[in-house]
Design brief:
The protein is an alpha+beta fold and 347 residues long. It folds into two domains: 230 residues, P-loop containing nucleotide triphosphate hydrolases (Rossmann fold); 97 residues, Nucleic acid-binding proteins (OB fold (Dihydrolipoamide Acetyltransferase, E2P)). Helix content is 26%, strand content 33%. Helix 2 packs across helix 3, helix 2 packs parallel to helix 4 and helix 3 crosses helix 4. The longest helix is centred in the middle third of the chain and has 18 residues.
Length: 347
């Protein structure tokens, strides 16, 4: 199989090129290209069924591609079995052994690999310390909270010193507050260890909190990939914009117009970025009516209606914060659309 040519001698990490996977003749992945550099954290973002978990499993060697392949530092892994790839995999359901204590779960893979007992004990202790579970080695896994169980699953993968760590919705079953706390801790830990990591999620807040780069998946392909700032500013497609959490997707008529005015040169869908919208205390914007004002994560968010169009945006904390704090449903306001607010999207 052909692979991208790397002209240097430095480690290149993970390379996925032209990867296609089918189940019973039904395509699940269709020509995926992806790289993860040493020390880089790439998040695969997308809805259920888009192929992100299948991509993870294929990189791990648990699924076989019908085309394309996976390389690490230029070495083709097509004939390398899962247990010899040096990759760690953490699942959402923890997959812990109920009959073993915490240390026994973390130790399991090392023991199967034939590592001497004294080395295993050191590895287990270090891995538990890394995830904040010092002193938990003798605990039964059925006494652990959901967050503690997920830390044990992470420690088990870290104990094997993987060169690539893959995480498949590892925080998906946790409540929101715990999920946010563990997301921050996970990002800090992975960067401190300098691990290459591939993280799967359907939660855009989690993706932005963790990623060096975000790859938005849809229909077995990568729709958009880039840094969090890059993909937020220009999602590229309607699907990617929705996955990333954008709400103001506006369909233009044949002349590029809508209730906000002429936003393009023809029909299609555009994103009106919420961070480029504001209300003005004096005239100068588009006449709008306030539909609602609510709080999200402590910030005021307004929904205003212009003709048949609704748009939502955060109210500024600066000079016009006073305007926002006094808004009530039914109020008439001037909606200001700043330069750069309109981003063309592919349907």
């Amino acid at each position: 199989m052909n692979r991208p040519v790397d002209g240097g001698t430095a480690p290149v990490g993970l390379e996925v090129h032209g990867l296609s996977v089918s189940f019973d003749g039904v395509p699940v992945l269709a020509g995926v290209d992806l790289t993860v550099a040493p020390g880089e954290l790439v998040v695969l973002l997308g809805p259920s069924g888009c192929g992100k978990s299948t991509l993870l499993r294929t990189v791990a060697g648990l699924e076989q591609p019908v085309a394309g392949g996976v390389w690490w530092d230029g070495v083709d892994l097509a004939r390398v079995p899962t247990h010899e790839r040096g990759f760690g995999l953490v699942f959402q359901d923890h997959a812990l052994f109920g009959h073993r204590d915490v240390a026994g779960n973390v130790d399991f893979g090392l023991r199967v690999a034939g590592m001497p007992s004294d080395q295993r004990a050191q590895r287990v202790a270090r891995a538990l310390a890394l995830v904040g579970l010092d002193g938990f080695g003798g605990r039964r896994v059925d006494t652990l909270s959901g967050g503690e169980a997920q830390r044990v699953a992470l420690a088990r993968s870290l104990a094997a010193a993987p060169r690539l760590l893959m995480l498949d919705e590892p925080l998906g079953s946790l409540d929101r507050s715990l999920r946010e706390r563990l997301t921050a801790e996970l990002g800090t830990l992975l960067r401190r260890l300098g691990l290459a990591a591939l993280h799967v999620t359907h939660d855009h807040d989690e993706a932005f909190a963790l990623a060096d780069r975000i790859a938005v998946m849809g229909g077995g392909r990568i729709d958009r990939i880039g840094t969090p700032d890059e993909v937020w500013a220009d999602p590229g497609t309607v699907h990617a914009a929705r996955c990333l959490g954008h709400e103001n997707l506006v369909v233009l008529d044949a002349d590029g117009g809508c209730a906000l005015g002429r936003l393009g040169s023809g029909s299609g869908t555009v994103l009106v970025r919420a961070d480029c919208l504001s209300v003005a205390p004096v005239s100068g914007g588009v006449d709008a009516i306030v539909a609602s004002v609510s709080r999200r994560a402590g910030r005021l968010v307004a929904t205003v209606v212009v003709g048949d169009l609704s748009v939502r945006f955060p109210l500024a904390d600066g000079h016009d914060a006073g305007v926002g704090s006094t808004l009530r449903p039914g109020d008439r306001v001037d909606l200001v659309v700043a330069a750069g607010a309109v981003v063309r999207l592919v349907d």
